[in-house]
Amino acid sequence: MRTYQVSGGADAPVVPVERPVPVPAAGHLLVRVKAAALNARDRLIVSGTYTAPVPPGRVPLSDGAGVVAAVGDGVTRFRVGDRVLSGFHPDWIHGPFTGWGDLYGVQRDGWLTEYIAVHERSVAAVPDHLSFEEAATLPCAALTAWSAVDGVGPGDTVLVQGSGGVSVFALQFARLAGARVLATSSSPEKAERLRALGASEVVDYVRTPEWGAAVRELADGRGADLIVEIGGAGTVSQSLDALADGGRISLVGNLASGGGLDLTRFFRRGAALRTITVGSRSDLERMNQVIGRHRLRPVIDRVFPFAAAPDAFAYFEKGAGMGKVVISL
Amino acid sequence: MRTYQVSGGADAPVVPVERPVPVPAAGHLLVRVKAAALNARDRLIVSGTYTAPVPPGRVPLSDGAGVVAAVGDGVTRFRVGDRVLSGFHPDWIHGPFTGWGDLYGVQRDGWLTEYIAVHERSVAAVPDHLSFEEAATLPCAALTAWSAVDGVGPGDTVLVQGSGGVSVFALQFARLAGARVLATSSSPEKAERLRALGASEVVDYVRTPEWGAAVRELADGRGADLIVEIGGAGTVSQSLDALADGGRISLVGNLASGGGLDLTRFFRRGAALRTITVGSRSDLERMNQVIGRHRLRPVIDRVFPFAAAPDAFAYFEKGAGMGKVVISL
Amino acid sequence: MRTYQVSGGADAPVVPVERPVPVPAAGHLLVRVKAAALNARDRLIVSGTYTAPVPPGRVPLSDGAGVVAAVGDGVTRFRVGDRVLSGFHPDWIHGPFTGWGDLYGVQRDGWLTEYIAVHERSVAAVPDHLSFEEAATLPCAALTAWSAVDGVGPGDTVLVQGSGGVSVFALQFARLAGARVLATSSSPEKAERLRALGASEVVDYVRTPEWGAAVRELADGRGADLIVEIGGAGTVSQSLDALADGGRISLVGNLASGGGLDLTRFFRRGAALRTITVGSRSDLERMNQVIGRHRLRPVIDRVFPFAAAPDAFAYFEKGAGMGKVVISL
Amino acid sequence: MRTYQVSGGADAPVVPVERPVPVPAAGHLLVRVKAAALNARDRLIVSGTYTAPVPPGRVPLSDGAGVVAAVGDGVTRFRVGDRVLSGFHPDWIHGPFTGWGDLYGVQRDGWLTEYIAVHERSVAAVPDHLSFEEAATLPCAALTAWSAVDGVGPGDTVLVQGSGGVSVFALQFARLAGARVLATSSSPEKAERLRALGASEVVDYVRTPEWGAAVRELADGRGADLIVEIGGAGTVSQSLDALADGGRISLVGNLASGGGLDLTRFFRRGAALRTITVGSRSDLERMNQVIGRHRLRPVIDRVFPFAAAPDAFAYFEKGAGMGKVVISL
């Protein structure tokens, strides 16, 4: 079968190789991968800047969807022909987070491959109304967004930053739950699309570098109840301005390097900060039920064919689009 | 009547003055103050280093207890002779935190005085088994601790830092709820007393500067589920070492200056951080019910007579004791 | 001023009398009532069948809205000219339910009068976009519905029974929070209107006496996650059929006499049952914020002039309409 | 191997038979059973009065503990030699209750046998400090009690009824969490033992048939916050007297036949009623952690040897003891 692995070299982020199709052990499924999707962490993995060491030859990507092609002994949850998608944490099935564990693309091979063998407990069913390309966007970005806005309702104002995969899903999920959503964006076109997805107001963070105060003003002068924090140290200072007294911040990544959180300002705001660790498979299934119920459609920026996987990484690196970048097999 | 106000000068933190006994307006009580207690914020208030400006002549101290000496028109919650204690937030009666508002010792006169007129909604009844000196310790330190360990139970391991007022109350409340409690201390004598109050283990943070790793080890090698963070930027780095993956930190003060929270380490720990904003009067009453039910006794370090109030501030400044410093009238 | 009181006689449910305009005591407001609304309990009160004794001459109705005409000493929450509405429980301000206490129309005079003096803590501000007639529908029916569907979200299926005041509000609030709503009705016209308000499906409980099974089928064959139970003993048997395993029932009234709940069937369903005790003033204010945010409009069946108050009771007794019956002053 | 199955006849509740030792399929464990325990439902199963049909030859008992004797292909959670105990619901691993499913002793063979083959996901590890006899008491009774008192804390008053397995565990768990516990009992000796386990007060329900009022009085005249309801229709009327306004009842069984719940009294009490469906394996593991942490010891009434299993049923039928009846292999 055809598989991509991290190159470790400068020319391309990933290189194609031939590997034998794996045989599913007891309790495992062989999945014919039909689509995979990119996330911010994949940039770090292929560029050698991830916080944990990535061994040479590792297959990247945590997010994929496909068809069960064969089942090992004792499999009960799925049958050949079922459509499944990956859980971001292959070993976190339910209950509270207790550590990052082994992850695809780092400690184990990921989904940028024609076939993958995974334990049946590590995957979930694909919602009926979704294509494989759409389903592949869910494991990391959608579940992160789902967990980040957990518990919001019709009385809440939520701020999402930009129009990357997590932010767009957070906007969609918060709207489903009746919350008011504000967004930041640097592009009038994206702002327009965010409004079409349900954002009440969009603040241009380039033209308004002090966007925290602007958001606060739009949020009844009181500030947002919940902020889905994408930028980490790079943006959290503005977020503290945008946040309501007693508000909370969901920390979904820490992309910017350097700096930290000013605890004095945090304390004076009476704020709360919660790391979003994606979610368990049980969380994934609950999210999928809601996605299915509401026939929610993921926003896909662009789909690349499997043969052009390196181009997908290059395109994603520029970060110009809105929503998810997907590779189709 | 005799009252103390902030001196603004170098000689003494507070100076006595004579003021007329106030007359309670409609809805207000006149309270004959019988005891008042000191908290970390009072050090900043009398030394002119508090984050908000303190006008000259301000009467300090948020925490006091006394007897209702007279009632204004329309008072229904209390009668003359009732024993009452102050709520830290005079205007936060119930519901979630929505801002710090006007506070005693800063925007309004506090409890270091023979008589104070307060709205009946701003105070709570003193638990029957407590003296006024004990009751005066509750409004800020006990309620902060109560809120900080909210929700812990028999499955949790809690870490408290040192043996100041908040830490000792947090130890007591966490033990009441069945949690396992670890503590840090620099003194063998205090460590002994913390153990007597129910701490399972005490780590000497002077002899073990990397106390975070030591706590982690004692907490089943997994780390504490909840840390009551007193030191803020000064200790939070060790706290991140001591914390379990997915654990939470209650931020009850930010006494140390400089520095901040490393968001990358925070994220990798899957941590949550929550500002403890003391609590509403409704929270105070619930805490008092539990204190009454379990006949919990506050730990008092030392009681000073009213005439020696400046000595109480000087003693508290040194921070050598365990539990609360109280002034008795 | 003109006031209605319970007649105790057979001719009319309420009779007009003249009374002096009350003078607001300290902490109290004098409210010029502009509208009042009827609830199921008012039928029992005026007909002498309420569970607690109603003294002769009692002024009925818990629900009203009006303008502050004068304020007593020490009032701080409102000013003359402010628009206010009643809290159903005049003395339940915040925190959990601890008993029914003194209620309008039973232990104290209610809102079917030109002027009423109430403590400032017993009322809440009227949402800006609502008329007095609309505001008067909120204290009992809307808050009951709000509490009954508390916590539902985009993954839940909710069943409401019929098209009375509580049921229509429950439909509206559940839809705001993203839930799927099913309803029962005996009238095709009402069914149409319930669908227009967001009900996915409406079951005709006259043509389908076994509507429980029909609802179960519509709810993915699994049953409703939450049922807002209006009929009590009269309908709860069908509700147990309609309920999902592990589902919950909000008990908002027990209008039908006789019978009870079959605990064996309840147990086998793994069900939960919760009395809805309307809510505190704090709950009312939170609901009002959401109503204001979403500019939700109460559904009013019919408005009667003050002079025709007895007709309003007679009309309400027939229960033919959809939504609330209001009296305008 | 030696196994007991339901006799279906009048002479004995269970009869011994010889069966081949099962071979564990993929994902399954072969467990050498070392102890099993009886629950109220087992009486119904062996007497043919259970609510679902029990096929002839069914092996009874949901609760057992033993040693892993062999593992099937693909097993990852346990190894040969591990000590395990059964989960009451073999297929409910995590998440909310969604139906009773297939249960031991009814739809599938149970634990009153020398060897049983079960899926590795259906069992949990035995806490280190417990014997097999003690461990066998946990799956149904302890987890039911754990779920029944979920969320109680130092401010709550809990009532347990009698001294059966669930009641004694509920007393122990509620005490661990700091709650005050009241109990009912008909025997002075048992009352003494309940007090030794931490009950504050014990009411004799034989000498005080109106024990509801007595409990209410003991609970500060206010009533219990939570009642662990064992008797169902037979006792729930007294429970409504014993309950605080706004209190909740955990329904753990409905042993008494006939009658039902008076919804009018329930409503006036502002009560909540929740079916306790034992719990998932995830709940079981969390409970076991706490049992291990606090080295809690189950109260065992009497242990019978495997050969005397019918005597155990006969003894249990009389219900004279306190705590659990166990069969040791």
Order of helices and strands of chain A: EEEHEEEEHHEHEHEHEHEHEHEHE
- Counting copies of identical and different chains, the oligomeric state is homotetramer
Proper CATH architecture of the largest domain in chain A? Alpha-Beta Complex
CATH superfamily of the largest domain in chain A: Medium-chain alcohol dehydrogenases, catalytic domain
Helix and strand composition category of chain A:
alpha/beta
At the third CATH level, what is the topology name of the largest domain in chain A?
Quinone Oxidoreductase, Chain A, domain 1
Question: Helix fraction of chain A?
Answer: 25-40%
Pair of chains with the largest interface and how many residues each contributes: A-B, 32 and 32 residues
Explain what you see:
The structure is a homotetramer of 329-residue chains. Chain A is of the alpha/beta class. Chain A folds into two domains: 2-137 and 298-328, Quinone Oxidoreductase, Chain A, domain 1, CATH 3.90.180; 143-275, Quinone Oxidoreductase, Chain A, domain 1 (Alpha-Beta Complex). Chain A is 27% helix and 26% strand. Chain A has ten helices and 15 strands. In chain A, the strands form three sheets. In chain A, strands 3, 4, 5, 6, 7, 14 and 15 form a seven-stranded mixed sheet that branches. In chain A, strands 10-9-8-11-12-13 form a six-stranded parallel sheet, with helices on both faces. In chain A, α7 links the parallel β11 and β12 (243-251). In chain A, α3 (138-148) packs across α4 (165-176). The model of chain A has no long low-confidence stretch (mean pLDDT 95). Chains in contact: A-B, A-C, A-D, B-C, B-D, C-D. Chain A binds chain B through residues 51, 96-100, 232-233, 236, 244-246, 251, 253-254, 259-264, 266-275, 277, and chain B through 51, 96-100, 232-233, 236, 244-246, 251, 253-254, 259-264, 266-275, 277. β13 of chain C pairs antiparallel with β13 (272-275) of chain D, so a sheet runs across the interface.
